[in-house]
Amino acid sequence: MAEPTSDASLVAAARTGDRAAFGQLYERYGRMVHGILLARVPRYDVADLVQDVFVLALRQLGTLRDEGAFGGWLATIARNRAADHLRRSVDETSIPEELPGEDPTRNEGRWVLRAIRSLPEAYRETLILRLVEGMTGPEIAARTGLTPGSVRVNLHRGMKQLREKLGWSANDA
Q1: Domain contains 80
Q2: Does 52 score more than 70 pLDDT?
Q3: Phi-psi map region of 101: left, alpha, beta (phi>0 left; psi -120 to 50 alpha)
Q4: Which of 27, 65, 71, 76 has a CA that sits 20 to 30 A from residue 140's CA?
Q5: How many Å apart are CA 55 and CA 64, to the nearest integer?
Q6: Overall number of domains in the chain
Q7: Which of the listed residues 78, 95, 112 is the one where a domain comes to its end?
Q8: Which pLDDT band holds residue 88 (cuts at 50, 70, 90)?
Q9: Do 76 and 146 fall into the same domain?
């Protein structure tokens, strides 16, 4: 079995125009970017913004100083893109999160997502990466550049606050 290619070697190849290498970075980090954006912007904007983040990353790849720090750098681009999007969309009319005639079971997921979004940012992001994107704690740490200890603490405290907001006990989750 071949060893996975490191981020640094994929970034180096992508800098030379290797689209397949950038595609591998997209595969590796797409869920992380999706989760970061989902924690911050309306869900109907997330898919387009994921694409925007990767287009920006491709254009700015030459500015990345440490090829091994791609994940943290990309997470920063995603956070900044979400903030830019929210600043620009303040004056726009938004589509309601819940539409009449929708499947009520889908509303439960939205209810939980709203509760997660009401938490502090550090907890919100790690919880979405864990619960929605299905990433493990070590994977979140490796992808975002956070320490494993920070991820563990954020997940633990975030789950505690989420349970309180939703009225769940530790045995319910």
Answers
A1: yes
A2: yes
A3: left
A4: 65
A5: 14
A6: 2
A7: 95
A8: confident
A9: no
Residues 11 and 91 placed together within one structural domain of the fold: yes
**Cα–Cα dist 78/128, whole Å:** 14
All residues at 6 or more sequence positions from 135 whose CB lies less than 8 Å from its CB, including other chains? 31, 32, 35, 129, 143
For residue 6, the Cα-to-chain-centroid distance in whole angstroms is 21
The pLDDT confidence band at residue 24, using thresholds 50, 70 and 90, is very high
Whether the CB-CB separation of 119 and 127 falls below 8 Å is answered with yes
Is residue 102 domain-shared with residue 148, that is, in the same domain?
A: yes
**Residue 67 · residue 7 · CB < 8 Å:** yes
**Residues in Cβ contact with 99 at an 8 Å cutoff, skipping those fewer than 6 apart:** none
pLDDT in tens, 154-167: 999 999 999 998 88
| Residue environment code for 119-148, b if the CB has 16+ CB neighbours within 10 A, otherwise e | beeebbbbbbbbbbbebebebbbbbbebee
Buried/exposed code over 26-36 (b: 16+ C-beta within 10 A; e: otherwise) = bebbebbbbbb
Looking at the structure, tell me whether residues 64 and 138 fall in a common domain: no
Range of the domain at 145: 98-173
Give the span between the Cα atoms of 58 and 52, in whole angstroms.
10
